[in-house]
Every structure is written in structure tokens, then in C-alpha cells.
Amino acid sequence: MVSLLFALTTLLSLASAISLPPNLHSRQATSLKPGAWIITYTPNAANSPTYRGPLRITSTSDATFISGDLYNGTVQPNPADGSPILPRNNYWGFVRATKLTAGSNRGFSLNLEFWTFGGFRQTVRYWDTIWAGQPVDGGYIVELSPASAPSGYPDTQNYFEGNVKIASSGAVVGKFTMGWVSTYLRRIKLEIGTVSGAKVPQADTSGTRTWKSVFAEAGYDISVTVGKTDIPEPSNTVGAGWFNEEQEHDAVLTYRGPTDYDKEWKYYLLIVRHMVESSRGAMIDPTRKYNGIPREGTAIASEWRVGTNPDGTPDTIDNVPWPASVVGKKFEDLQDPWFRTAVHEGEVP
Ligand SMILES: *[C@@H]1O[C@H](CO)[C@@H](O)[C@H](O)[C@H]1NC(C)=O
Description:
This protein has helices at residues 211-217, 245-255, 335-346; strands at 19-20, 35-43, 51-59, 64-71, 91-102, 108-116, 140-146, 159-166, 172-182, 186-194, 220-226, 242-243, 266-272, 274-275, 281-284, 297-301. It is mostly beta strands. The strands form three sheets. An eight-stranded antiparallel barrel has the order 2-3-4-5-6-7-8-9. A five-stranded mixed sheet has the order 11-10-13-16-15. A two-stranded parallel sheet has the order 12-14. A hairpin with a 4-residue loop joins strand 3 (51-59) and strand 4 (64-71). The chain is elongated and about 70 Å long. The two termini are 47 Å apart. It binds 2-acetamido-2-deoxy-beta-D-glucopyranose. 2-acetamido-2-deoxy-beta-D-glucopyranose is lined by residues 49, 72, 90, 92, 116-117.
């Protein structure tokens, strides 16, 4: 007889994971291995596609968080790659667990909700949703048992499969698998390009806070490449070395290496001397006004003079009481805030 431990189900806004209890009784279930998993859902209905995607599991001392995504295409994720990246057009829905229940023999069950995606919008305000109003079929219960992992899964002890049941009726509607693939939740790429003579931000002053270390703390496996380091400066009425946003956008598209968002989550960081619309740095094209793809890159202004407006007058935009010791200094010479700005603007949105 397996005793059941029920989680408190908290209603959170959609597209965020729900917290589940951290410590199921040790006799009933080992805790789920944190990191990225690959999930598959195959409905029993004839001709139904198999849905696939990542599942992300994290825990704190207070709670466990389980959420993921499902894609409806035919591209097979390779477990050796870690968290799967699948074609954007196949994005089908957001997955979250609302309850984790211990079973016997390393089994467990998950209450899962699949929220289908309704399509992107140019602007999403807080009252908008890009998701369906209800989870598919009102939510499922998936009863999982250890199973032998197909080849390629790196941890044969952490592969499970089982039936998907409609939570309200118990009707079996399909099969579900989940196999652990990586300690990282997501993997991303960053390409850095600079104008001639600009420094490449790689670390803080101490050298211990790097792109790798900062992103690893958030569960991201980041790979950083330095691309073109002699990007020409466009002519700009403000002066030599200045880029406006459209010129930044053109530089990203013109000078970056080949980029395929259906296979990689990539971001571009453009290092220029001065920016027209902002002093230190800014995301380029947040509203997709140039080529229909928003936020492909970001720029920072390495020769910004600290405490000044873009036109050189004393700062009135940020209204920051800059310490006298840094006012007027070249931004890239203040390694820590400059690297911090690069990381801040370079967060993959
Ligand atoms: C995949 O799901 C999306 C979002 O619901 C939909 O627009 C698209 O037509 C689906 N594609 C296939 C191959 O089913």
C-alpha cells in the first residue's frame, strides 16, 4: 500500500512553474534529478503526432519546480546535446507539473498541465495571454516507472515511462516518457563582435566572474564566441563612432556568423564606441520593427563617459548620483560595471 503525499497546489500565473514539496518520504521516492530532461507525449488517438521537448527540474530547500515545453514536429532531439532546441514553428505548448506523488519501486506520478500556445504578438501587456484559457483536457496524471533508456541517454537510472490519464476521468489517452539529459536547464550561444580597437568583455576585474560562471548559476550552459572585431563604423550625423539603433541592427545582421534559431538559441553582443539612443547599452529592436525578428542582439557603448548623457552633457537621463571618482571615465576602463552591463544586456530575452 503506497501512501499518497499531496502537494499544495498554488495558483500562479501561467508560464511559471508551480512549487512542489521538496522531500517526498525517503521510502517512497527518490527526489527527481535536477536539470534538463527530454519528454515525449504520444496520444493514443490514431494519426496523432508525438510531442517532444524539454522538461526542467530545479529545487530549493523549500520546493521543487517542474516545467517544460512540447513541440509537434518530427525533429528528434539528440539526448547527447542536452536540453533540446527544436524548430520554432513546431512550438505547441507549455507544460507544468502541479503535483508530484510518490510511488513504489522508484515510481512516481505527476499531475501535468499542457497549455497550448496561441501565437506571438508584437506587444504583450500584463493582461494579455499567448496561451489557451484552460489546460488541454483539464489536466493529466502521468504514472511513471523506471524503464530502460533508449541509446544515447546519459543516465540509464533516470529514464521513466508510463500512461497519461485525464485527471478528471482516469481515461488513458496516451504514453509519456522522460529521460534526464543534462545538469544545465538550457543551452545558449553568444557571439560578440566589436568595432576596431574595442575591448571584448570576458570577465570582471577578478577574472572569476565570467560568462560561463554567471550563466551557470542560472542553469544556462553558454558558449561564447568572438566573431568579427573590426566592424566598420557607419557614418552618423552625431559623429564618428556613433551608432543609432537601426545601424546596430544592420551591423548584427551583416557581420554575425551563420545563425539558425531553429537549431540554436543565439544572441549577439555588439560592442561599439557610442550609442545614440542610450548611454551604456540596450537591447536592439525589442519590438521587431526592422526585420520581423525582435531582440537578435544587444549593444553596449564602451566609450560612454560615465555620468554623461549621450550628447556629453551631465547625466539627466538616468539621474544616478555617480561618484566623482568615476564621472567622466571611459566605460570600458571601469571593468566591473562595463562587464556587468554586457551581461545584463546580453541576457537571452
Ligand atoms: C504545431 O502547433 C502549432 C501551435 O499550436 C500549430 O500552429 C501548428 O500548426 C502545429 N503544427 C503541426 C505540424 O501540427
